[in-house]
Amino acid sequence: MNKSINKVDTLRKIWEQRPEPENTVLAQRQKFGLESFIKQGFPNKKNEKWKYTDLKKLEKNYSRWLARKETSGNTDPKKLISLKNSIHIAIVDGTFRPDISSTLPKGVYAGSINDLINTNPDLISNYWGNLAKDEDNGLISLNSAFSDTVVLISIAKEITLEHPLYLNFIGTISESVIFPRVLIHLKESSKAEIIEHYTSNQPRIVNAVTEINCEPRSRLIYCKIQQEHEESSHTSTQYASLDKESYISSTSIDVGAELSRNESKIILRGQGSQAKCNGLLVANTKNYVESRIDVEHAAPDTKSREKYKSILSDQAKGVFNGGILVDKDGKKTDAALVNRNLLLSEAAEINAKPELEIYADDVKCTHGSTTGQLSEDELFYLLTRGISLTDSHNILIQAFAGEILENVGIELRVNLRQHINRMVGISS
Amino acid sequence: MLLKIKNLHVSINNTEIIKGLNLSIDNGEVHAIMGPNGSGKSTLAQTLAGNKDYEITNGDMHYLDNNLDGLDPDERARIGIFLGFQYPIEIPGVTNIYLLRAALNARRKSMDQPEIDSAEFMRFVKEKAKLMEIDQKFLSRGVNEGFSGGEKKRNEIFQMAVLQPKLAILDETDSGLDIDALKIVANGVNQQRDSDRSFLLITHYQRLLDYIEPDFVHVLSDGKIVRSGDKSLALELEEHGYENSEKS
Predict the structure, then answer these.
(1) Is residue A278 within a helix (H) or strand (E), and if so which, with residue range?
(2) Could you tell me if B107 lies within 8 Å of chain A, comparing CB atoms?
C-alpha cells in the first residue's frame, strides 16, 4: 500500500517538473487529470475489473522511465512499415513526424497537444473526456495528466474518406513512455476507416485512450493492433458512442508486449445502431494479455456481434471478459457473443467470462465460450488427406486466427500472420 | 494383392468390435461390405485409415509392401489410401482449395516431386469439381462449412477425384442422400473406376449398389465376414434381410 502511494507521489513530482502548458485550458485539464490520478492511484486487484492484472512492474517502470530524458531512438523509422493506398500518420516515440507522413486530409490533425490546442481551441471542451472519464480509472486520468500526442479526426457531414487513415505509433527509444489520445468524430452520414498500429523494437510503456463518436448514419471501420516489443507494457481504452443507425466495425488485435490490457466499451445509444466487434489475443512465453469488451444496448433495434479468440502458448496467461448489457430501452436488441480460446501448452492459462445483463423485453441475446486444444477430429481429417501432423497443427492454428485476421487489410494481415507464426513456433 | 487383412481383431475402449476379419482386395476391384448397425463396418474403415482410438489386438493388415499397423494416418494417405468419411466434419477457416493443394503437395513432397504448378492445379481441380457438380465458389469456402449432408458427401468424392488414391474406402457415402445426390456420387465413383484403383464400399443398404456395380459383396456380422459372393448376394440381402444371411 505504502509503496503504491510512493509511486503515485513520484509521478506527481515528475509531473510538477515538466513545463506547464501555456494554454490555460489545457493546463487546467492536465491538472484535473493529475488530481484524479492522485485520488484513485493505480487500479488495484480489489476492483473486479482489475483482479487479474498485475500492475506492480508497470507501476515501478512508470516512475523510472518517465524520469528519463532520452530523446532519440536507434532506428530509422523510414524503414518501418507503411501501407499502400493509405494516409500515413507517423508518430515516432510520441512525436508526430510530418516529414514521413502523408498530407493530412481536411479535418484530420496530428501533433503534440500543445500545438493542437492552438489550431483547435475546442479540443478539450468538445472532444476530450466526453466518453473516457478520468474518474473511470487511474490509468485514464494518468493519460489526461501527461497527455502528449493527439490525433484528432473529425470527418464532416456526408464525407467519405477515400483511403484508410493509418496511425502508425512507432517506438524506437528504450524505456520510453507515451500517452496517446485519439479523438474520432464522424459527423452525420460520413464514412471512414481508421487503423491504430502500435509497434516498438524497444521496451516502452504505452497508455493509450481512444474516444469515438459516431453521429447518425455514419460508418466507421476501426482496427487497433498492438504489436509491441516483448518487454513492453501496453494498456489501452477505447470508448465508442453510436448514434441513430450508425455502424462500427471494431477489430482489436493484441499480439505483443509483456503486459497487454485492452478495454473496449461501445454504447449503442441511437435506435438501429450496430456494432461488429472482433478480437484476437496471442501470447507466448510468460506474457500476459487481457481484453475486455462491453457493448451496451441503450436504444431499440440495436444489434451487436462480438467474436473474440485467443491463442496461448508456453506459460502465457490470458483474460477475456465480454459483456452485453441491454438497458430497459434496448427493446428488440439482437446481440451475440462468441469466445474461443486455444491453449497450445499445458501451462498456458485463460480466464474467460462472457456476461449478459438484460433489462428489456423482446430481445435476442446469445453467448458462448469454449476453451481447449486443437480438435482431434479436425486433425485426423487432415491427416487422412496425407498432410503431416506438424502441418495439420499449423493449418488449424492459422485457420483459428485467420477468422479474426480477415477483418484486417491484406498488408497488415500478412504481416500479422507471419508474426503470429513466429510466436507459436510455426516456421513459414 | 493390394490389401490383405488377416485375422484382424480391433477394440475400442477395451470392447472388441472386429473379431477375426479376413479380406483381400486386388487392383481394380470393387468390394462392398454390408451389414447391420454395430457389425463393425465403420470400425474397419477407421482402422484402415489409422485412427488411433481403435486398437488392433491381433492380426495384420498388409497394403502393397507395407504393414499398415506401423504407419500413421498421413503416411497411409500418402501411399494411396483414402477414407471417405461417414460424417465429414466442418473445418472453418481452412478452405477446400487450400486443403486439396496441401494434400496434393504433401504427397508430391513424399515422392520428392516439386510442388504442383498453380495454373495446372486450378485447371485440374475445376475439371473434377465440374464432374461432381460442385459450384466453384465452394472451393474458396471452409471445408464442408455450411454444406448440407449431401454436399458433404459429394465433397468427399470430389476430394477423392482430386487425390486419386489407389484404395478408396467409402464409409456409408450413400446414407442420407436423396436419389439425385446418390446418382452424382455413384457417377463420380464409376468415372474413377480403373484397373489401378480399388474401392471398398461400406454400406447399410443395397440401393448404392444399383448404381455402382461391385465385383464382390461381403456380409459383416458381429465383427466377422460371414458370407462373400458377387452382386447377387446384395439383392438376396435386400429381400431376406441380414437376419437370415448366416444360415441361408
Answers:
(1) strand A274-283
(2) yes
Rg (CA), chain B: 18
Structural contact between residues A191 and A177, judged by C-beta atoms closer than 8 angstroms: no
Nearest to B102 among A378, A391, A402 (CB): A391
Segment B195-248, tens digit of pLDDT: 999 999 999 888 899 999 999 999 999 999 999 999 888 888 878 877 655 544
Least CB-CB distance to B73: which of A378, A380, A398? A380
Interface test with B, best of A340, A383, A391, A403 (most B CBs within 10 A): A383
For residue A29, how far is the Cα from the chain centroid? 23
C-alpha cell at B75: 503416411
pLDDT interval class at B37 (50, 70, 90): confident
Q: Which of B198, B237, B163, B218 is nearest to B28 (CA)?
A: B198
Query: Which residue out of A375, A380, A393 would a mutagenesis test of the B interface target, given it has the greatest number of B Cβ atoms within 10 Å?
Result: A380
The count of other CB atoms within 10 Å of the CB of residue B56 is: 15
Q: What pLDDT is stored for residue B248 in this prediction?
A: 40
Q: Measure CA B119 to chain center.
A: 29
Average pLDDT over residues A71-98: 81
For residue A357, the surrounding DSSP H or E stretch is: strand A349-358
- Each as own residue / partner, the long-range contacts of residues B45-48 (CB below 8 Å, 24 or more positions apart, any chain) are B45/B83, B45/B86, B45/B169, B45/B171, B45/B200, B45/B202, B46/B83, B46/B171, B47/B8, B47/B10, B47/B18, B48/B3, B48/B76, B48/B81, B48/B83, B48/B169, B48/B200
Q: Please state, in angstroms and rounded to a whole number, the distance separating the CA atoms of residues B61 and A155.
A: 70
**What residues of chain A lie within 8 A of the CB of B107, using their CB?**
386
Contact B41/A at CB under 8 A: no
ipTM (interface pTM) = 0.96
A134 pLDDT more than 60: yes
pLDDT of residue B82: 98
For chain A, give the mean pLDDT.
94
Q: Where are the beta strands (DSSP E) in A58-203?
A: 87-92, 95-96, 108-112, 149-155, 165-171, 176-178, 181-186, 191-200
**Tens of pLDDT along A408-420?**
999 999 999 999 9
Confirm if A53 and A261 have CB atoms less than 8 A apart: yes
Full-model pTM: 0.91
In angstroms, the CA B117 to CA B114 distance is 9
